Amino acid sequence: MSTSDRPIPSDRPGDTARPGGTSLRSGTDRPGGTDTDGLLAEQLLRLTRRLHRIQKHHLEPVGITPAQSRLLRLVAHFGEPPRMADLAARLEVVPRAVTSLVDGLEAGDRVRRVPDPSNRRVVRIELTDTGRATLRELRSARRAAAEDILAPLTVEQREVLEGLLSALVDPGPERGC
pLDDT averaged over the chain? Predict the structure, then answer.
């Protein structure tokens, strides 16, 4: 964003003036009492639900759920087979949820439980050949789902969206939770 496009402070609390005299007001301090932040949040929630539906649709032929897809990609991300606890922590879910996901992936021969060589009480999860093949299918399905979602946008709009989403997804250490 160039300096001429950046919001500048306004002399009214809660307002930020834009070049050309328009303003961005926060909260419900808008003419007619509209809550733009609330409407934006609602749009983001609707988009999230739409993303989930489209992703689920594209994953059906692969025979995997979005949650299983995420777990499978995560297992592949680790340098060595991860522990169930590592997966639960990374996914920010309770260990029981990971157990259910692993059970489903194991039933489809996509992962297998293996003992930890240094501690026999620890179970690790490793990809199978079928799991690696599924990951290749997932990449294609994810690309197709992304294209469905992003189809209405121009290349320039996609670049702007990428920047905005990056700012929201990774707000930095001082703002994140």
Answer: 82
Which amino acid, residue 130? T
pLDDT, residue 168, reads 86
Q: Is the pLDDT confidence value at 46 over 50?
A: yes
Residue 81 near residue 124, CB atoms below 8 Å? yes
The values of phi and psi at residue 80, to 5°, are -125, 160
Query: Is residue 72 within 8 Å of 64, Cβ to Cβ?
Result: yes
**DSSP structure class, residue 83:** B
Radius of gyration of the chain (CA): 22
**Which pLDDT tens digit goes with each residue over 148-164?**
999 999 999 999 999 99
Give SS3 for 142. helix
Tokens representing residue 140 in the block: 């294609």
Can you tell me the distance from the alpha carbon of 111 to that of 128, in angstroms, rounded to the nearest whole number?
Answer: 5
- The per-residue pLDDT for 81 is 95
DSSP track, 9-68: E-SSTTEEE-TTS-EEE-TT-SGGG--HHHHHHHHHHHHHHHHHHHHHHHHGGGT--HHH
Q: Residue 43 to residues 47, 148, 165, 166: CA-CA distances in angstroms?
A: 6, 18, 14, 17
Separation CA 5–CA 12 (nearest Å)? 19
